[in-house]
Every structure is written in C-alpha cells, then in structure tokens.
Specification:
Helices cover about 35% and strands about 15% of the residues. It contains ten helices and ten strands. A hairpin with a 4-residue loop joins strand 5 and strand 6.
C-alpha cells in the first residue's frame, strides 16, 4: 500500500498542503475525508455553520443537514471526490488544517474509540481482535461494517460510524474483522458518560482573592432563567437552540463548579417541554462540554 508521503513524487500534488495530500490518498482508498481545524473541530463552510451552529454534531441532524453550499460541514462534508477536496471552497481550510478526519460510516466502517488505558484493557479482554490504530491517549479499533454512532457506551469508549468522524492517525496494524455483535450491542445500552452532571472542573483562585461571582444566587439564577426563556421562545430548529444555549451556560457558569443537578434539570425540562428528546438533551450537553474542553 502506498502512503500519502509518496505523493510529492507526483508533480501535480507536490505543491498541495500535506493534509490535503493525505485526504486525497484516503479518498483513493474509499475513505471519505475532511479537514479539521485546531482542537480536532470541523470547519464551518457557510455562515450558518459558524461555531458549529448547524449540522456537524449528530444530535443536531435529526432535522436533516443544513442546506449550505457543498462542501458542507463535519461528517457531512467528508467526500471521496478529489474535485471537491481540491475545490476553491476548501482551499483556505486545507491551508489552516491541523489534521485530517474521515467518515467511518461512509466507508462502511465502525471505529471503537478507546480513550484511555483502562478502556484499551477492557477491549483486549472483551472484543475480537481487529485492525488497531494508536492514538494520543488510547487506541482506535476498526471493524468492517457500519452502525449508528454513540458516545460514552462505556467509560472512555465511543462508537464512531454513521453521522460521525474520526481523526486519521495512520493505517494501523492487524487485520480488520467484521463488526461483531458485541460491539453492536454496546449501542443499545444507555451511555455511561453522556449523562449530565455538575461540572467538576477546578479553576485557580481569583487573583484578587475575591469570591466567584457565579456563585452569587442572583447572578446564577438570572443566567439559568435567561437560558430557560431562550429555549422556550425559540423559533428555530430546537436542536440548534438547545446546543447553543447549553454551550452558553457552560461557557459562563461551567468552569467553577457552580452548576448543580437542579440547574441542569431545569434546562433539560425546558428543552423537553419544547419537544426535544432526553437523549438529544444528553448528547447536546456532552457535546457542549467536549467543545469547551471540559
């Protein structure tokens, strides 16, 4: 098998950004590829996609992908078409790209993303051996066969397949096996880490030695009440509003541990009264925390 580092031998590709050369190589292998910006996040290719406002997270796609011009965003932008990958619409993205990702489900694959040593140890005991790719903190176990993507099926374990993307970290080792029933069964279980919980992130003491203003009952109450009102009065697709609101609440109040189960329950209740499902609320909360690095 060739490797994207071989591409400089092709004069037509020698001047292309390195990540684009990798994407073209993946496309030739049948893996729909896309660029990632800093933080392993997708690029927004239209104004409606700014700050992940639409469609690049599974819980937002229940209403269907947005109608922005191709290439779209996140997994929906992944493609094996070299004309799209090299199009002017993505020229800037490839120049800024920090990594390359691919859409496993689009290639008929499932990635079991093992995020730490404990998860890897569990997989070695419970899952059939298959192609393994080393990651920064754990491993990707790749199986032949697609399924729905679910985060947090076990501590440190995510399933990435349809409507999801995985960072490309190399071809890996071992022989890829068919997707086993034991992995499919994981998707039927309730996620273990996507449940909302009070943020336990610790921040340094205030420079002036004062008390965190977020802990002021009036300040925090006003923030939660405004978030509830924003959800109740939205005229947009509920998935977008819920995610944006959760992201705003966490960015303002989530770093010092002032949010409690009662506050989170209020936000979830407002979303569910507006028609959002509990599962989508959980996904939106987990994705907002992930985006903020919590």
């Amino acid at each position: 098998m060739t490797h994207p580092t071989d591409f400089p031998r092709d004069p037509a590709r020698s001047a292309l950004p390195a990540h684009l050369r990798t994407a073209l190589w993946l496309a030739e292998l049948g893996l729909p590829a896309l660029p990632l910006r800093e933080g392993k996040l997708p690029f927004g290719n239209c104004r409606g996609c700014k700050n992940s406002a639409c469609g690049d997270r599974p819980h937002m796609l229940a209403a269907g992908p947005c109608q922005c011009p191709a290439p779209c965003h996140a997994w929906a932008a992944a493609t094996t078409d070299p004309a799209v990958l090299t199009s002017p619409a993505w020229a800037g993205a490839w120049r800024q790209a920090q990594a390359v990702a691919y859409h496993p489900g689009g290639a008929g694959l499932t990635v079991v993303d093992l995020d730490n040593a404990e998860a890897v140890s569990w997989a070695r005991q419970e899952l059939p051996t298959t192609k393994v790719v080393a990651t920064t903190r754990g491993e990707h176990w790749i199986y032949r066969g697609a399924m729905r993507s679910v985060n947090g099926v076990r501590p440190g374990v995510d399933l990435k397949s349809t409507m999801s993307y995985a960072r490309w970290r190399g071809p890996g080792t071992g022989t890829m096996q068919a997707l086993p029933d034991v992995v499919r069964a994981l998707a039927a279980k309730e996620p273990t880490v996507a449940r909302p919980a009070p943020c336990i992130v610790t921040v340094p003491a205030l420079a002036a030695g004062g008390e965190c203003r977020h802990r002021s009952p009036a300040y925090l109450e006003r923030g939660i009440a405004m978030a509830e009102q924003r959800i109740k009065e939205t005229g947009e697709v509920i998935h977008k509003t819920v995610y944006r609101t959760f992201l705003a609440v966490l960015s303002r109040h989530g770093w010092c541990g002032c949010l409690t189960e009662a506050h989170i329950k209020r936000l979830f209740t407002a979303a569910q009264e507006k028609g959002e499902s509990l599962r989508n609320c959980e996904d939106a909360w987990a994705n907002a925390r992930t985006k903020l690095g919590m």
